[in-house]
């Protein structure tokens, strides 16, 4: 056996190749949206031939559906345990959500694009919309708990503070992957958000 054969990377499994394609779809969607997601562009992104893609997925729609499941799993992982105190729980959610969505613009596309439902199975669309509702409810519940405990301000209605928190996350994840300076700006913005949430609270 030659040295080249001994050092050659092991062949990927079919499941790993399917994952590569789905993650590539997220990258393409994050950069250019639905119009950019063609078989040719996707094949180039993942390093396959057009025909090789069809050996793993029957259609673009099947690829996007798999990519959506990756998004759902990634976003689900940003919810901190409900046992954490309200304010740390809320801020950890915000930081994890910003890191996840800003780090992969395809995730943000799945959650926000009006084009996504046109490509996805109804059940997957329902899951994505449910995830958005759950996120808002999670933030609102944490704010209410923190307000009652005195760790989050009570002079502004929890519903209004929820809009501020969700709007901040949305604003920080509207662009593509963050550069170092953009990440630093996001950190400063989230620190400012925490100040907003705690200013005016009862001492």
List the helices and strands and how they pair.
Blueprint: H1 3-7, H2 14-36, H3 39-46, H4 50-56, H5 60-76, H6 86-103, H7 105-112, H8 116-119, H9 122-149, H10 158-172, H11 180-198
Helix pairs in contact: 2-3, 2-5, 2-7, 5-7, 5-9, 6-7, 6-9, 6-10, 6-11, 9-10, 10-11
Structural overview:
- The longest helix has 28 residues, at 122-149.
- The protein has a single domain (14-198), classed as Tetracycline Repressor, domain 2, CATH 1.10.357.10.
- It has helices at residues 3-7, 14-36, 39-46, 50-56, 60-76, 86-103, 105-112, 116-119, 122-149, 158-172, 180-198.
- It has 203 residues and is mostly helical.
- Helix 2 (14-36) packs across helix 7.
- It has eleven helices and no strands.
- The model is unreliable at 175-181 (pLDDT under 50).
- The termini are far apart.
Classified in CATH, the superfamily is: Tetracycline Repressor, domain 2
Q: Indicate the multimeric state.
A: single chain
Q: What name does CATH use for the topology? A: Tetracycline Repressor, domain 2
Q: What would CATH call the class?
A: Mainly Alpha
The string of secondary-structure elements, in order, is: HHHHHHHHHHH
Short description:
The chain is an all-alpha fold and 203 residues long. The protein is built from 11 helices and no strands.
What would the keywords be for this entry?
mainly alpha, elongated, 203 residues
């Amino acid at each position: 056996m030659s040295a080249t054969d001994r050092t050659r990377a092991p062949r990927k499994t079919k499941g790993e190749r399917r994952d590569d394609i789905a993650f590539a779809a997220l990258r393409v969607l994050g950069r250019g949206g639905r119009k950019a997601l063609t078989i040719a562009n996707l094949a180039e992104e993942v390093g396959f031939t057009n025909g090789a893609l069809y050996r793993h997925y029957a259609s673009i729609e099947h690829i996007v559906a798999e990519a959506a499941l990756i998004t759902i799993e990634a976003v689900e992982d940003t919810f901190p345990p409900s046992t954490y105190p309200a304010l740390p729980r809320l801020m950890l959610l915000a930081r994890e959500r910003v890191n996840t969505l800003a780090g992969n613009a395809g995730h943000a596309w799945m959650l926000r694009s009006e084009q996504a439902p046109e490509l996805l199975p109804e059940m997957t669309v329902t899951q994505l919309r449910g995830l958005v509702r759950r996120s808002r409810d999670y933030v609102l519940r944490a704010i209410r708990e923190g307000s009652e405990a005195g760790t989050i301000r009570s002079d502004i209605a929890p519903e209004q503070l929820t809009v501020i928190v969700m709007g901040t996350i949305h604003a920080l994840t509207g662009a593509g992957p963050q550069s170092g300076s953009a990440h630093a700006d996001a950190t400063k913005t989230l620190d400012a958000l925490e100040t907003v949430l705690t200013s005016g609270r009862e001492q």
